[in-house]
Amino acid sequence: MNKYKRISAGSKHLLILNENGKVIAKGSNKNGQCNVELWNNIKMVSAGNVHKAKNTGNTHSVCLNNNGTVLGSGNNQHGQLDVSEWNNVIDIDCGWMHTVGVFENGSVNAIGRNSEGQCEVSKWKNIEQVSAGDWHTLGLTKNGTVIGAGNNTKRQLDVSEWNDIKQISAGYLHSLGLKRDGTVLSTGNNKYYTCDTEEWKNICYISAGSYHSVGLTESGKVVATGNNDFGQCDISKWENIICVSAGPDYTIAMNENYEVLLKGNNSWVNL
Question: What span, in angstroms and rounded, lies between the C-alpha atoms of 184 and 27?
Answer without folding.
Answer: 31
